[in-house]
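dumping this here before i forget
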Amino acid sequence: MIQRAWLRWSLALGAAIYLALALGTTEVNWTRVWEGLPRGVKFFSAFFPPDFVSRWSEIAEGIEESLWMTVVSTVIGIALSIPVGIGAAKNIAPAPVYYFCRGILAVSRSFQYGHSPSRPSGQRGSSVSEYSRWAQSRSIHTAGNPAHE
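structure:
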């Protein structure tokens, strides 16, 4: 706990101002949020009470599939990284192999993991209105569609 009252109140005021500015710049369609609340409640209520007994075969199948995906991707990653790593060592590999493997490393570092390729670099996150514009441009809005209710 912060003992100095003026510091505690200053930090609280700063946090409140920051949150007000952050929320003020976020475009949220509150009508759409309000209309989606019943679907959200329905979605979360499906988790309670959890039913592990009657769905165990599906759960076990999903766990097995996830573990296999993990093992396969790890094996592939190791199989690719060992030769590239050895080839990128200047004291072991000949110059053409060294430069080729260093090029692979440079290119792999340029990938922006977790970002959309269509979004310019530097723009992170998304807003409801950005998604709405994207969905409207592709005619995939789910409102009124019984398959998505």
